[in-house]
Amino acid sequence: MIAHRPPEELLLGYASGSLPEPIALVVASHAALCPETAREIGRLERLGGTLLDGLAPAELKTGALDRALAALDIAPPAPPKPIVTPAARALLPAPLWPYVKGDLANVAWQRRSADVHTADLVTDGGARRAFLLRVKAGRPVPRHTHRGLELTLVLTGAYCDAANCFERGDLQVADPTMDHQPVAQAGDDCICLVALEAPIRFTGPIGRLANPFVKL
Questions:
Q1: Cβ contacts of 71 within 8 Å, gap of 6 or more
Q2: In sequence order, which residues have a C-beta less than 8 Å from that of residue 130 and are 6 or more positions away?
């Protein structure tokens, strides 16, 4: 059973389509693993549709329909759906498949330390980004706090901090009030999907020295 789910304001943002892509990707991936969250998003989407049905229609500007139809004529064709390998299906929820073109072999891991690797997936043109994080079993990530929201979805393995433990499908939402040091649990390496609104800030004795040089 998935014990940690996103707060309602994130679900409302997702259902209304107002979340930036990196944040929305994590929420969608969590929903693909958590039927309870998927049902709640569906309920919020239906509620939004009911509210829209109650609004008076707005008049279109002159020529709006013609411009919309013309835009459809020149829109590029949708890219073909990737062929998803069994390994990708087993590890990654469906919303992530296009970001790795259906194959884990396309994940470009970057070494951050002996125990931590990351693989960038998407940015929104600003500080927000989503990436895969792999932490060696039994090892910690550097102690840190946050300059904005941090969403962490466990895909395989598990990790714990001082407050809670998180397993596959669990989503942790951290903000600037939290200073923690997650530790991957024994067994499998812990692989997570992470979205950041801004780079984290290391707070450990060594990490503070690395802040000017290491951006994560």
A1: none
A2: 21, 22, 23, 25, 26, 121, 122, 123, 193, 194, 195, 196
C-alpha pair distances (Å), 39 with each of 35, 44, 46: 6, 9, 11
Helix spans in the chain (H): 8-16, 21-33, 35-53, 64-74, 86-91, 205-210
d(CA 178, CA 145): 6
23-39: burial string, b at 16+ Cβ within 10 Å, e else: bbbbbbbbbbbbeebee
Q: pLDDT of 38-57, one tens digit each? A: 999 999 999 866 555 555 66
Q: Which residues contact 103 (CB under 8 A, 6 or more apart)?
A: 82, 83, 84, 85, 87, 88
Closest CA to 127 of 45, 206, 197, 73: 197
Residues sharing a CB contact under 8 Å with residue 172, sequence separation 6 or more, in sequence order: 4, 150, 151, 152, 164, 166
Residue 200 or 28, more confident: 28
Q: In this model, does residue 209 exceed pLDDT 60?
A: no
In terms of C-beta distances under 8 Å and separation of at least 24 residues, what long-range contacts does 99-104 make, across chains too?
99/25
Cα–Cα distances (Å) from 133 to 20, 188, 191, in that order, read 20, 14, 6
pTM comes to: 0.84
Q: Over 70: is that where the pLDDT of 69 sits? A: no
